[in-house]
Amino acid sequence: MAQMTMIQAITDAMRIELKNDENVLVFGEDVGQNGGVFRATEGLQKEFGEERVFDTPLAESAIGGLAFGLAMQGFRPVPEIQFFGFVYEAMDAINGQIARIRYRSGGTQNAPITIRSPFGGGVHTPELHADSLEGLMAQQPGLKVVIPSTPYDAKGLLIASIRDNDPVIFLEHMKLYRSFRGEVPEEEYTIELGKADVKREGSDVTLVAYGAMVHSCLKAAEELEKDGIQAEVIDLRTVMPIDFETVMKSVEKTNRVVVVQEAQRQAGMASHIIAEIQEKAILHLEAPVLRVTAPDTVYAFTQAEEVWLPNYNDIIEKVNKVINF
Amino acid sequence: MKRTLENIEKQFETFQILNEEGKIINEDAMPDLSDDELKELMHRMVYTRILDQRSIALNRQGRLGFYAPTAGQEGSQLGTQYALEQEDFILPAYRDVPQLIWQGLPLYQAFLFSRGHYHGNQMPEGVHALSPQIIIGAQYTQAAGIALGMKIRGKKNVAITYTGDGGTSQGDFYEGMNFAGAYKAPAIFVVQNNRFAISVPVEKQTAATTLAQKAVAAGIEGIQVDGMDILAVYAATKEARERAINGEGPTLIETLTYRYGPHTMAGDDPTRYRTEDLDNEWEKKDPLVRFRKFLENKGLWSEEEENKVIDQAKKEIKEAIKKADEQPKQKVTDLIKNMYEELPAHLQEQMEEYKAKESK
């Protein structure tokens, strides 16, 4: 099996789908000749031609509108929003249009669009690059929101997203792009959207996370093990829809939960997850469900970023609280 | 500094074929239409005017919902639509229901759209269109995408989209034209300049003298047309269509028109922002009046023929309302069903909840 970084796995997934289905089109700012600012589309224009992999003028709203229109002509567009903070420019195109077309048309039209975009903190970007806006997108009925945490997951989830007949927001954490390699099969495979993955089994506490925070949870779990605490780490992989079945099964086993998100605390995914847990499993709980999140400020200026972002120590602190409740 | 604006604006003269008296003033530009086709244009305008009158009445009786009156804009709406082929794609704005109807959307479905029933948005086989866009501008960027798709597929078709004078202030307006221009995609962008964006006059909307000149910044062709002259509108659209399918890129068409009625039937009162003098001035330019004169002079139209269209329209509207009434009531479970191809678990749960509610 090949060793790949997440960005290589993502490129590989697009290459496979461009090869499999002539309706797949890849486009965005700098994705053609330049291969994308992170090289996610490296070599794809050369391999598949300018009609399949191409640059767009610089306007996120029109990138969304272009994807919508191409979908109406039977294409399977895979546009890139260069950094997810720029999505504000495309909010109507995505949430007002792409997300609603199946509903609006009474099921007669659909938008099999996968919008890829880098996001996530810890890489010292200027403003409006790193924000975790998955909650904003997950609030929009009609969208699916996918956030991989490993190269293996990234490839299987991206292929599944491109093949999905509904629009998918595919968020790629910048810190995970090249920070480690993982085993990735060279052949094609898919990972079902909406299915969580237990990244580590444990019996004392459940850590629910996604994206880069999965790795913070795994690190926390290693530390906790030294104190004899066995943490189970659930990687949601898809935050819309959420695999609550897997979450509840774990809650019933461990009876203690900490939900971890890189996003700010207010109106986030963690709040939604906790609401579901207390509705469905309150009698299984031995302690309140706690959250690890960033504080409710606008995304941190880079010099405060390291403290602002949740880390494994914050997770350990909350785990100790639920264990000792 | 060389001043260019004045020179550019001077080039955007209003294109007209038929003047207010129904006389051809631009013989060279006269489109190649048979007598039957000319009569068909009149038929459609009369029919659509009656449809508008009946729709307003039905709305007042509470038998229709959301409705944006169309009277005054028939030349602009139907002249552009008549230049299309059946395989062309229409992206209408909320006032552009007539184009959909003449492209093949059954009348009862247009009424269901007004009533807020999703069946009104289900385009029948062979009608390539979106349901009317409610937000202002999104359709411009979508038209660029549809047109690019047609180009990639090698189709000899166009995407045509509509907005109003207010819509030209949206970023999407420029973005859509710019993208289509950059890709030389076969799109036609129509601005129906009816002078008021709800209440704000076009003079407050932009410093530009014409809206057609906004094409210049996107590097595409632009033309200002007398929107009360259905022949000029048709000819301009036909030419834009030819250029588009020949790979010569998109066109922006500004039609100068006027809506006689309110913005929508939801409480807008035009007397708050328009004078009676202005209304009268525009009603003199009426697209039906001048085209009727033109056809009568050619011996192609009579009161008898007009009455036949009016009777037919009334009869079909009555039947369509009856059919709309018979449509099964919309359910929340139908809406849930149309969210995703396969329902995720949380929506399956909600589906069960609403099935139970709806069976009570």
TrEMBL record, chain A:
Cross-referenced Pfam families: Transket_pyr (PF02779), Transketolase_C (PF02780)
GO molecular function list: oxidoreductase activity
CDD domains: TPP_PYR_E1-PDHc-beta_like
InterPro entries reported in the protein's UniProt record: THDP-binding, Transketo_C/PFOR_II, Transketolase-like_Pyr-bd, Transketolase_C
Cofactor(s) needed for function: thiamine diphosphate
Transketolase-like pyrimidine-binding domain boundaries: 4-179
The organism's place on the tree of life at top rank: Bacteria
Keywords noted in UniProt: Oxidoreductase, Thiamine pyrophosphate
Protein name: Alpha-ketoacid dehydrogenase subunit beta
Taxonomy of the source species: Bacteria, Bacillati, Bacillota, Bacilli, Bacillales
TrEMBL record, chain B:
SUPFAM superfamilies: Thiamin diphosphate-binding fold (THDP-binding) (SSF52518)
Cofactor dependence: thiamine diphosphate
InterPro entries: Alpha-ketoacid_DH_E1_comp (IPR050771), DH_E1 (IPR001017), PdhA/BkdA (IPR017596), THDP-binding (IPR029061)
Reactions catalysed according to its record: N(6)-[(R)-lipoyl]-L-lysyl-[protein] + pyruvate + H(+) = N(6)-[(R)-S(8)-acetyldihydrolipoyl]-L-lysyl-[protein] + CO2
Domain Dehydrogenase E1 component: 43-332
GO MF annotation terms: pyruvate dehydrogenase (acetyl-transferring) activity
Keywords noted in UniProt: Coiled coil, Oxidoreductase, Pyruvate, Thiamine pyrophosphate
EC number: 1.2.4.1
Gene Ontology BP term (one): branched-chain amino acid catabolic process
Pfam family, any one: E1_dh
Name of the top EC class for this enzyme: oxidoreductase
Coiled-coil segments on the chain, per record: 303-330
Known function: The pyruvate dehydrogenase complex catalyzes the overall conversion of pyruvate to acetyl-CoA and CO(2). It contains multiple copies of three enzymatic components: pyruvate dehydrogenase (E1), dihydrolipoamide acetyltransferase (E2) and lipoamide dehydrogenase (E3).
Subunit (UniProt): Heterodimer of an alpha and a beta chain.
The name this protein goes by in its record: Pyruvate dehydrogenase E1 component subunit alpha
Organism whose genome encodes this protein: Aquibacillus halophilus
